[in-house]
Amino acid sequence: MIITRRSDFWLCAVIAAVTAVEFLQLSMIAFAAGPIMGELGLSPEDFSLIAAVYASVAVLMISMQRWVVEWLEARPFICMSTAITVFGSVLCATSDDYRSFLTGRIVMAVGGGGLFTSARMIIHHLMPGPRRFIGIRALGMSLALALAAGPWVAAEAVSAEHWSVIYWLVACVAAGACALAWTTLPMHEPGRGVRPSLLRVEMQVLLAAASFALPYGLQRLYYDFFGDVGFAALVMTVAVVGLFVYIWHQYRARNPLLRVRRLLHVRYVAGMALFGFGYLMLGANNYVVPMMLQRTLGYAWQTVGQFEAIGFLAAVVTFLVVTWLLPRYPAPRKYLVVGFCALTLFGLMLARIDSEADLWYHVLPAIVLYSVFLLTVMPMAAMQSFRQLEDDERAFANAQQIKNMLAQVCIALGITLATLGQQWRMAVHYSVLNARISLGDPRFTLVFDHLHEALSQVVGHGQATPLAMGQIARLLGQQASRCWPISTISPGSLFWVSLALW
Fold first, then answer.
1. How far apart are CA 351 and CA 485, in angstroms?
2. Nearest to 207 by CA among 67, 82, 388, 69
3. What does pTM read for this prediction?
């Protein structure tokens, strides 16, 4: 990346640091969810609840980002947000139970919720004209590098039995972003003096509650599917109605917090559909891929993290190629074709993986294809969605806020849908495989006799029987945990819709 001015270098450093805070913690925490639960004694239900709370608080803070900046200006807001993120990360790193960890995550959401929006608005305000593309490249490169570094750092921390390093690292990055913002950003931001938007406390409470209830209702389907489906359906219905009421209020208000009326045009709505789908894939696959490699294929966390990091380095290469081609070939359709074809191949490759799959030949190419999808479709959606709003500063800021609010909700929904899909697939596989685990089945008898004979030579005849049955149970669990990745759910349909709208 060529920096034309000294000031641009430091602005790009601020943008990269602020972006890294959000995506580094996202990639690390999603990867290390299992070990963190084990260290803190959390159940999957507890961890899912914490994720829903984090998403709802983050949505609330993103919706208020512009309003707070109108009162404080950008530099104090970013410094305050990163300082709060440091505090929340320290709370998480030193937590030892459910309550302390939940408190830390809430504080992190309060501080970090609006940071990515702020990074994009720095580019919009302080890097106009051709310099704006330099800022966008800094943001994209930081995002890609954070996605690649996150699994590797988390795997190394977990393997060394120091999971808290994940949060200490986030605290260090946030502290660095705070120092850079304080020394680099101007005290008075362009556009100061506008009339602050109207903040209705009851509507913000409604937004937070609805944002929490939607993933929570889906999670209750996962944990209480055979218990109280009606309650989960009611919670999700109330959540959807609450979100609709909030959007309708913003649409009708004279001086709303979010200028929804200004954003209702085809290009922006199509872009949000692409963003929503992309973030849904990000949340789902951040959960599915590490779990499948560790549980189904039996690889250690350190190995899984290293291969994910290598695969995600393709995101860096992809983004560099895309930003090199864009000035010469700006039409978005070719990039969307490549991105969605890569996603489809990624899903098909993972769906064919079995217990004998090779990481280099089967898994790594799939992760590379997934990285290509993320860093072609998402930048195209970003560059096309906001083109009609760049001359309206407040509408542009609100458009970025809504996009990032959608990201938080869709990431949480992606994780939830992945867990639901995995539960369904495991139930189906267990029902089929359990029918074959009987003394009268010739394949079971053959496998059992082979294992029993091999183990008898090591531990003796008496212990060989339970060990052989345990090995068969382990193989049963591995085969049952194979899943059809959520990314294979007809991505082509959304792709063709996006082509028609653009």
1. 6
2. 67
3. 0.83
DSSP letters for 312-341? HHHHHHHHHHHHHHTTT---SHHHHHHHHH
The C-alpha atoms of residue 19 and residue 85 are separated, in whole angstroms, by 13
Amino acid letter for position 410: C
DSSP, collapsed to helix, strand or coil, labels residue 13 as helix
pLDDT at 480 over 70: no
Residue type, 318: T
Q: What is the pLDDT of residue 496?
A: 45
Are residues 159 and 39 in contact, defined by beta-carbon separation less than 8 angstroms? no
Give ∠ CA 17-119-107 in degrees, rounded to 5. 75
User: Residue 497: is its pLDDT beyond 50?
Assistant: no
Tokens 């190629």 found at: 321
In the 3-class helix/strand/coil scheme, how is 401-434 assigned residue by residue?
HHHHHHHHHHHHHHHHHHHHHHHHHHHHHHHHHH
**Are 64 and 114 in contact, with CB atoms under 8 Å apart?**
yes
Angstrom distance (rounded) from CA 141 to CA 273: 23
> Tokens at residue 54, please?
């984090």
What are the structure tokens assigned to 163, written together? 């999971």
Query: Is the model's pLDDT at 398 over the cut of 80?
Result: yes
**Residues 491/345, Cβ–Cβ less than 8 Å:** no
d(CA 348, CA 167): 34
Nearest to 486 by CA among 312, 281, 222: 281
- Give CA–CA dist 16/24, Å, rounded: 11
